[in-house]
Write a structure and sequence with these properties.
Number of helices: 16
Protein name: Amidase domain-containing protein
CATH superfamily: Amidase signature (AS) domain
Distance between the termini: 56 Å
Strand order of the largest sheet: 1-4-2-7-9-8-14-15-13-10-11
Keywords: Signal
Number of strands: 15
Bound molecules: 2-acetamido-2-deoxy-beta-D-glucopyranose
CATH architecture: Alpha-Beta Complex
Pfam family, one: Amidase
Strand content: 5-15%
Structural class: alpha/beta
Helix content: 25-40%
Radius of gyration: 22 Å
Organism: Exophiala xenobiotica
Length: 561
């Protein structure tokens, strides 16, 4: 880009003469690279790019209910980037790239609500370090997306934001907990969005919305300034429509490096500092055999499939079979990992998950931090007992025991030590599986069945727990769709996890690219005209307010503790 700048500058002056007003910009499926081409050739302005995304939110958010708030500063930010553009100072890998943040990331001047009514006024005084890094790289924070309340389940329903719907089938959930980000990015409300992942939450929304995401190696990206659940399991990452965009997000977010407020970052190997993860996607620099796939060895976890044959499971198994044939045809070696006793997601979750033991301490530390202002509960127990007459949070029936246990548990429990020992053993076992079979990666469907309908008690069948406990990196990619139905005109998206050893993000991106180059599974949604262009009819003077649709399914009462 640097070498091109003199040429681009002359193009800008030429085109601004030719077009008194910039051409309408079509932001459906826009990427960092497509927007940069339009901006740097003078075909459009940052103000017009931002306005085009706002117009999509205005037109379609009432269909999918993915956005909690728009950033009131966004037009000013766009205008200041236009000044940089006109003075030849358009720098940053994310220059004028509109992004959305899951509403558990601290970003001024917006509140960080986690979708919880009780936190509607809880406002950060500082950006999370990852948010600051995204802004430094030129990203335009368009707003905040809905999530499953406090990121505790995968249905993406919350007391503040209501139920987000899947853009491919309005009868289905968008996965979760980062489901607002998933639905919004599928609908081209922004270029990419951030999420968090304690068990599945960056991967389930990617899988359910035909998108790509990364869950980084535990420690690679600072989690400070993000509403926490679990010190052991939480990670932050991004969800996007193409690998290049999420690799750019990974490069920018990991540039935070060591953060004294998140000591997991002390594990970052010096050799990974400053890595440009997009370099793993360029075919010219990819010297490894991964692009040919012929010497690749990939494990498949048999225990992470549901082999019963129903409309909910068979499409997932069929999509995975297609991938395995594709890999074998390309010369890859597939190793069937048949130890279904060790690799049983249900059994691993119930024996080893430590969220309920860490949640109270982690959330209280966040809520009592001096970096928040505004009325709010100051501890996790206070949140859940705030007000018995006006419940201000939502707990779906399947979560009651989770919250009850978390209210009286801590890392001081004897069971915490037992679970951490089992996690250490699972991590050794997983590494042994990699080494014994000389594997480059392990694959399995993110979810054994299609993403569940709205009103279901939980987001069942997901396989995220293995990476969550072992701190392994995962790239999730779209691999297909179920058959079309009357409510799902192009079917329901299906996604696959590609899991690696710690710090193998580059290898995973290369492998994801060689599969995606052959498959091209991502499709935009068509429901209710989501695939149509939206004209910007208003010249925005202020940012429109988002109407929150509190469409909470009757099956989920607002909780009272
Ligand atoms: C160019 O942009 C950078 C980053 O936004 C800013 O710090 C710098 O002051 C700008 N330089 C000029 C000459 O405008
Ligand atoms: C937050 O919610 C309370 C009631 O629960 C309401 O009175 C207040 O206006 C809300 N604040 C904001 C900033 O929306
Ligand atoms: C790291 O931070 C966690 C949570 O803040 C704390 O429990 C742990 O003791 C710290 N570990 C080290 C090695 O400082
Ligand atoms: C399963 O799918 C088939 C064809 O796609 C359809 O005819 C049938 O009604 C579905 N069964 C159920 C139980 O939904
Ligand atoms: C793996 O082995 C199991 C049990 O032997 C078998 O049912 C399954 O089809 C195999 N999977 C692959 C991908 O070959
Ligand atoms: C460690 O994991 C292996 C493989 O699942 C299992 O066979 C073994 O019993 C476990 N050891 C302990 C001490 O939990
Ligand atoms: C997986 O674990 C669950 C819960 O422990 C158990 O009910 C199920 O039978 C196990 N599945 C296999 C294939 O071992
Ligand atoms: C509880 O709700 C009542 C009625 O809305 C309100 O007057 C009171 O201030 C609330 N208490 C707390 C602690 O939020
Ligand atoms: C932790 O200890 C408390 C107090 O003994 C107990 O009520 C709770 O169930 C324990 N939690 C777990 C997850 O073991
Ligand atoms: C497998 O799928 C069937 C049918 O959808 C479902 O009833 C069952 O609970 C699933 N089993 C697991 C372990 O997910
Ligand atoms: C949008 O999708 C509908 C239904 O598949 C199709 O008829 C229409 O041509 C599509 N529009 C565009 C602009 O692609």
């Amino acid at each position: 880009m640097h070498a091109l700048r003199p040429l681009l500058l002359s193009l800008i002056s030429f085109t601004s003469f030719t077009f008194a007003q910039s051409l309408p910009i079509d932001v459906r499926e826009a990427t960092i690279s497509s927007l940069h081409s339009s901006l740097f050739s003078g075909v459009t302005t940052c103000r017009d790019v931002v306005s085009a995304f706002i117009a999509r939110v205005e037109r379609f958010n009432s269909d999918i209910n993915a956005i909690i708030t728009l950033n009131p500063d966004v037009l000013q930010i766009a205008d200041s980037l236009d000044v940089s553009l006109s003075t030849g100072n358009a720098t940053g890998a994310l220059f004028c790239i509109p992004i959305l943040l899951k509403d558990n990331y601290d970003a001024t001047p917006m509140p960080s609500t986690a979708g919880c009514l009780a936190l509607n006024s809880s406002t950060p005084t500082h950006d999370a370090p990852t948010v600051a890094a995204l802004r430094r790289a030129g990203a335009v924070i368009l707003g905040k997306s809905n999530l499953h309340e406090l990121a505790l389940e995968g249905l993406s329903v919350s007391s503040l934001g209501g139920q987000t719907l899947n853009p491919y089938d309005f009868n289905r959930t968008p996965g979760g907990s980062s489901g607002g980000t998933g639905a919004a990015i599928a609908a081209s409300f922004a270029v990419f969005g951030t999420g968090t992942d304690t068990v599945n939450s960056l991967r389930s929304p990617a899988s359910a919305n035909s998108l790509f995401s990364f869950r980084p190696t535990r420690g690679l990206i600072s989690r400070s300034g993000v509403i926490p659940i679990s010190y052991t399991q939480d990670t932050v990452g991004a969800i996007g429509r193409c690998l290049y965009d999420i690799a750019t997000a990974l490069t920018v977010m990991s540039s935070v490096g060591y953060d004294s407020l998140d000591n997991a970052t002390s594990a970052i190997p010096p050799s990974t500092i400053g890595t440009d993860y997009t370099s793993f996607l360029s075919s010219s620099t990819s010297t490894s055999s991964l692009s040919s796939l012929s010497t690749i060895r990939i494990g498949v976890l048999e225990g992470f499939f549901n082999r019963t044959s129903t409309n909910e499971t068979s499409p997932v198994n069929a999509a995975m079979s297609t991938i395995l044939s594709l890999l074998q045809t390309a010369g890859a070696t597939i190793v069937n990992i048949t130890d279904t006793t060790t690799y049983n997601a249900t059994a691993i979750s119930s024996a080893m998950d430590v969220q309920q033991l860490e949640y109270r301490e982690s959330l209280t530390a966040y809520l009592s931090s001096p970096n928040l202002k505004g009325a709010r509960p100051l501890s996790m127990p206070e949140l859940y007992t705030t007000n018995l007459t006006t419940p201000e949070f939502l707990v779906i029936p399947s979560q009651y025991s989770y919250v009850e246990t978390a209210l009286r548990s801590s890392t001081g429990n004897a069971s915490y030590f037992t679970r951490q020992s089992m996690i250490a053993n699972l991590t050794r076992t997983l590494h042994s599986t990699f080494l014994a079979h000389n594997l480059d990666a392990i694959i399995y469907p993110e979810q054994k069945n299609l993403v569940v309908p709205v009103g279901s008690p939980s987001q069942s069948g997901r396989n995220g727990i293995l990476a969550a406990l072992t701190g392994s990196p995962v790239i999730t990619i779209p691999i297909g769709f179920s058959p079309a139905t009357s409510s799902a005109p192009i079917g329901i998206p299906i996604g696959m996890e590609i899991l690696g050893l710690p710090w193998s993000e580059g290898t995973l991106l290369q492998l994801a690219k060689s599969i995606d180059d052959r498959l091209h599974a991502r499709k935009m949604p068509v429901t209710n005209g989501l695939n149509e262009t939206v004209e910007v009819t208003t010249s925005y003077v202020t940012v429109p307010e988002v109407t929150l649709l509190r469409n909470i399914p009757a099956a989920y009462p607002l909780g009272v503790y």
